[in-house]
Amino acid sequence: MVELVIYGIVLGSIISLGAIGLTLVYGIIRFANFAHGDFLSAGAYVALFMVTGLLAWIGIPDTTFGSLSFGWRMAIAFPVSMAVVAGVAILLDQILYRRLRAKGSGPVILAMSSLGAAFIIRMIILILWGADSLFYRPGLMRPAIELPLGAKIRPDQVLILFMVVVLVSSLHLFLKRTKMGKAMRATADNKELALVTGIDTERIIMWTWGIGGALAAAAGILYGIDVQLHPYMGWNFLIPLFAATILGTIGNMYGALIGGLTIGVAQQVSTAFLMPTYKLPVAFVIMILILLIRPEGIFGKE
Amino acid sequence: MIILSAKDITVGYTEVDILHEVSIDVQAGEIVSIIGPNGAGKSTLLKTIFGILKPRNGKVTFKDWDITGLKPNMVVRKGISYVPQVDNVFPSMTIHENLEMGAFIRNDDYSQRLREVYDLFPVMAERKKQKVGQLSGGQRQMVAMGRALMLDPQVLLLDEPSAGLAPVLVSGIFEKIKDINATGVAIIIVEQNAREALKMAHHGYVLAMGRNVLDDAGDALLANEEVGRLYLGG
Amino acid sequence: MEIGGIIAYLVSLAIMAGIYAVFCLGLNIQWGYTGLFNIGIAGFFCIGAYASAMITTPKPTGVYAHYVNQIFGLNLPFILGLLGAAVICGVIAFLIGIPTLKLKEDYLAIATLGIAETFRLIFNNEHWLANGPRGLMGLPQPFQGLVDPKNYNYIYLIIIVIIMVVVYLSIERAIRSPWGRVLRGIREDEISAAMSGKDIFHFKMQSLVFGAMVMGLGGALYAHYTKAISPDVFTPLYGTFIIWVMLMAGGSGNNKGAVLGAFVVWGIWIGTKFMTDLLPYTLKARAPYIRFLLIGILLEIILIYRPQGLLGEEKEVSKLIE
């Protein structure tokens, strides 16, 4: 049980990364981005391409750090993939959503467009890599670290938690300390006033997509390290991401963090009673309960 | 010297025009009050000057620049600031952050200006770190004005600053507006509270049904019997 | 291929397009006329298909029961299968509507998506329910004995067309009634519809349930056409996404557009199959993904360049009744 909770925190921290990006996009650009799950997949597969393809080809040695399951290749691939997916998210906005916004299309049309983008990303992954599960480094089991109460945790998972803490803290500092970060919060708060104040909201939107895409990529890679890569991995994260976002109140980054951890723990703990394939319905049921009891989420007003 | 002028403005949200060939002039450093019944198009005029609405006809000139149809984020760079009637603060941010956002487009060191604004609103200086969403209506209105002043504008547009405030707070707000004006900022103020607005105005305009009805010095309008009967409630 | 083969092929194509047209009509009630964003059509597809399958087949007995698990089997006629599918889908839509229809549009989208994925997982994992991933086989077809099994598809096509026409006419009738006018009022401007004293929640609920019932019919029609169903059919791609593209392509808010869109997009879908058949052997396995990629791009192009679809919305509806 303790072990399930720990695994739940690992899974939850990954969900949190995705949900924070989703909630920022939701809060600032004001539509439900159904392609967010597939940003996770995109990040994971871009990193896979780097680790097993490009970086191998240019001769970066296939070493591992200590008892972790990866080394320099992943250390390079990780930030590059974040940047690539940030670029993809911004590009999608420029090609699709910006045009729709300019035409005055409503949020539902934007959401539909993002659903289309989700399928496009997934199909590209399927075309390039096929439908099978893949691994960054197949068949390498690392010894687990023994914890009190008989629980075990793998070194990779410790690193995942560490990376999530680093990324979330950096985002926190960015939003609290930098001019651009504050302008993002201002735009989320009151877009019309932000415009009146002279903030270039289109630029804010680009930053938002960039950050959302980068965090999603990180989440996807971390999940790939922890479990495996699959073309539908991101799509299967979509419901948990929305559940975490709604639970933590749409637009609230800290809410998304708490929401993600809650959903992750609930999903893992449920495997003690249910088949592991029911993780997704567990997230879904939690979401429906929130919608019934407190649709504005834990940090919502009223 | 006329610093801002709107000439023959015709504008509407849809095909229906709200304003018909409305004109106003603002001298540097003066307070101009725009009064008139509900639906006269007073707020629409401010929105058009600031570029939120694009006029179908007419011209807005600020200093030597034709700013007609310029977007708000560009107008604000020219030296005009605008305080909307509602939703005029960033509620989840602190007072200090609201002021910083006011200075968003400044790339120079604005700490001097920040001090001046805090001097103007000492209440705000005491609670810099407080979230604006937790403040009272009157305090929020001050934050909104403080935010707009961060750019050191030459013209400040105020849309119904006393709306929704308790009567005891209204005079406080008007005092602040006079203080702001005393620092040399020209102010265009749109008000329901017409009598108070004319008292402090150097010049006043009366709008009705989207047209210019009358304009004169503030005290002259106050003394005008017809204005008193029709627009100041007897 | 000789001429008979070509005709048989066209008939099978028309049957699938007709089934999809029924789904498009159902979606058109929800989206086209009410603005409800249901992206879990696959869920109703799935439920409709399984409901009708279990209503019309007998519960397995004897040796057969060792291989096929099925929670119930009523062995009732086809028509009751259709009705049952519609009713069960309506009930499920009602349950989804309760927590979501009072909230912003996207909540309904997320909830329908969740329900679709959940049902697929349940049918896949719970072997006692409907035989798990292997699914159900040997579904009965109406009027089976009448003609040579080789020519049965002609009969089924007639059935599809009749049902399509009935659904089409009943939707047309409904939307031309005062009820339909309220729906469009809600879609255009929820606030003013609310101010004119309309109980928006109930109207939305009726539209959601009505649309879902039509989708249930579609699911049942599909099940009895293929005679075998398994959970992997009801994926977001085949069960939801392509239906959205069809409706958007044809013109939402227009029932003729919904039907036209189904035939056009299904035609394109089949057409791309011939294209990908030309691909080198190594790429063949991934051909469906290439085809879906094209469909996804098609949706984006429609949304940006022709959001009204081929036919656009019928603006004259209210004039016609006066």
Structure description:
- The complex is a heterotrimer of chains A (302), B (234) and C (322).
- Chain A has 302 residues and is mainly alpha-helical.
- Chain A has helices at residues 2-29, 36-57, 72-102, 107-129, 155-177, 179-189, 191-196, 201-226, 233-247, 253-270, 279-293, and strands spanning 145-146, 152-153.
- Chain A has one domain.
- Chain A has 11 helices and 2 strands, in the order H-H-H-H-E-E-H-H-H-H-H-H-H.
- Chain A has a two-stranded antiparallel ribbon with strand order 1-2.
- In chain A, a hairpin with a 5-residue loop joins strand 1 and strand 2 (152-153).
- In chain A, helix 1 packs antiparallel against helix 8.
- The model of chain A has no long low-confidence stretch (mean pLDDT 91).
- Chain B is of the alpha/beta class and 234 residues long.
- Chain C has helices at residues 3-32, 41-56, 64-67, 78-100, 105-125, 127-130, 152-176, 178-188, 190-195, 200-226, 236-250, 255-277, 281-284, 287-305, 317-321.
- In chain C, helix 8 crosses helix 10 (200-226).
- Chains in contact: A-B, A-C.
- Chain A binds chain C through residues 31-32, 34, 96, 99-100, 103, 105, 107-109, 111-113, 115-117, 119-120, 123-124, 126-127, 130, 235-236, 238-239, 242, 246, 275, 277-278, 280-281, 283-284, 287-288, 291-292, 295, and chain C through 35, 37, 39, 98-100, 103, 105-107, 109-111, 113-115, 117-118, 121-122, 124-125, 236-237, 241, 244, 248, 285-286, 289-290, 292-293, 295-297, 299-300, 303-304, 307.
